[in-house]
Amino acid sequence: xxxxxxxxxxxxxxxxxxxxxxxxxxxxxxxxxxxAGDEFFLEFQPIIQLSKRCIVxxxxxxxxxxxxxxxxxxxxxxxxxxxxxxxxxLGAWVLRRACEAAHQWPETxxxxxxxSPRQFELDDVYRMVSSVxxxxxxxxxxxxxxxxxxxLLSQNSPNLQTLQDLRxxxxxxxxxxxxxxxxxxxxxxxxxxxxxxIDKSFVSRISNPEDRHHVFEAVMGMAKxxxxxxxxxxxxxxxxxxxxxxxxxxxxxxxxxxxxxxxTQLLQFMSSPLPxxx
Length: 278
Ligand code: C2E
Ligand code: MG
Ligand code: MG
Ligand code: MG
Known about the structure:
By secondary structure, the protein is an alpha/beta fold.
């Protein structure tokens, strides 16, 4: 009886695995045609400096409007693009579009673009970035690259040199998703990023600004020790804003201020007064 049950469970498991594989390979083929077609677009989310009460940056976020499935989250298709290697083309496309869009904004507003660690493995990121800057004509000092810490792992000294070269161009380097990746903090000494972005999973736990949130405090303390300014992402409530501000976090991003929006909406947003909540 137990054997029968196990076999049954295995059959279910195998079917689920197969479904997942089918879904992923479909997604992969669809990604290729999406890049050829016109199914990707960018949305933009403002980043605000509290002390100056102004928009200092905008994060570019890729969107995929799939012909039959509708909108698919980057959390679903970016890993597929990383796996297949398509991320190099996709990443270059995002960067080019983002730099072109930034031309329409005030010069004080920088554009942040996410670069997958996989791009460093598969591509010459320095060459790709400098060529996009050249063709788009965007000054390097207006570009921020958001990179996760895994770029510094796996005996990656070539990546360290690439980061240094990008920095020498005057590009701002942001350590993205800080706090959720790896247990080891030793990589923090390997390269000094210009900014740390605390992952939204830490912010979402904050409900009462009077409570203490030890992990968030520790992360802020560490950022201070490393002399890296901090951006908190995923701010959705005034309580969360109050709390991160009380800990000295000056840069914020989240639905509470603005959701990711189209470039037309962004131009509108930037030309109107900031929301009263700030
Ligand atoms: P990320 O780089 O950490 O980007 C921030 C994510 O948080 C975005 O999700 C944004 O829409 C979301 N977010 C911002 N404020 C709030 C908030 O107040 N509440 C909530 N619940 N969410 C908020 P999105 O656009 O779905 O992107 C997810 C992830 O996909 C990104 O995380 C990034 O890792 C990746 N991604 C997006 N666009 C690109 C891209 O062009 N290239 C690469 N390599 N990765 C990308
Ligand atoms: Mg990011
Ligand atoms: Mg990211
Ligand atoms: Mg994040």
